[in-house]
């Protein structure tokens, strides 16, 4: 894989994490949500009305969910590119040195598990943020 493609994969993963953490609701917005009262059902409607009054169609909750969705997509794309690179490189190296199948497979499985772990962490954080 070229240097350009590996930079794209890395930037996809980084972009996914940035979008995940950008989707976190600020502390002052959470306090405003809690101050509406436990039984007050008009608070979400007031937020939507306020957003419509200001001319924005995207509420804080909608932006959080949009960012989380984009983050999930970017994490999945980055993990797919990384694991694709591992599989392609392993196949190529086995074709060059068939006697080194064992160590190559072990290294490939360990590296793929690490990438999957990072992707799973990203997905869990995304789902926690989107609530």
Give a description of the structure:
This protein has a domain at 3-23 and 60-129: F1FO ATP Synthase (Up-down Bundle), CATH 1.20.20.10. Helix content is 82%, strand content 0%. It is built from five helices and no strands. Helix 1 (3-22) packs parallel to helix 5 (101-129). The longest helix has 37 residues, at 60-96. It is elongated.
Oligomer: single chain
Question: Which band does the percent of strand residues land in?
Answer: under 5%
Rg, Cα atoms, Å? 21 Å
What is the terminal separation in angstroms?
37 Å
What is the assigned CATH homologous superfamily of the domain at 3-23 and 60-129? F1F0 ATP synthase subunit C
Helices and strands: which structural class? mainly alpha
CATH topology of the domain at 3-23 and 60-129: F1FO ATP Synthase
Using the alpha-carbon principal axes, give the shape: elongated
Classified by CATH, the class of the domain at 3-23 and 60-129 is Mainly Alpha
**Percentage of residues in helical conformation:** over 70%
Order of helices and strands: HHHHH
Largest sheet: none
Uncertain spans: none
Number of strands: 0
Report the average pLDDT across residues. 76
SS field, number of helical segments:
5
Key terms:
131 residues, elongated, F1FO ATP Synthase, mainly alpha
Task: Give the topology.
Layout (H helix, E strand, L loop, with lengths): L2 H20 L4 H8 L7 H13 L5 H37 L4 H29 L2
Helix pairs in contact: 1-4, 1-5, 4-5
């Amino acid at each position: 894989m070229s240097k350009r493609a590996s930079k794209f994969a890395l930037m996809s993963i980084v972009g996914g994490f940035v979008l995940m953490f950008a989707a976190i609701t600020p502390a002052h917005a959470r306090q405003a949500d809690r101050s509406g009262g436990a039984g007050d059902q008009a608070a979400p409607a007031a937020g939507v009305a306020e957003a419509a009054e200001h001319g924005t169609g995207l509420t804080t909750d909608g932006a959080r969910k949009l960012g989380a969705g984009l983050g999930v997509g970017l994490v999945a794309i980055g993990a797919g590119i990384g694991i694709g690179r591992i599989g392609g490189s392993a196949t190529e190296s086995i074709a060059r040195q068939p006697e080194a199948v064992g160590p190559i497979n072990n290294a490939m499985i360990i590296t793929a598990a690490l990438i999957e772990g990072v992707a799973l962490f990203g997905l869990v954080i995304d789902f926690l943020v989107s609530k």
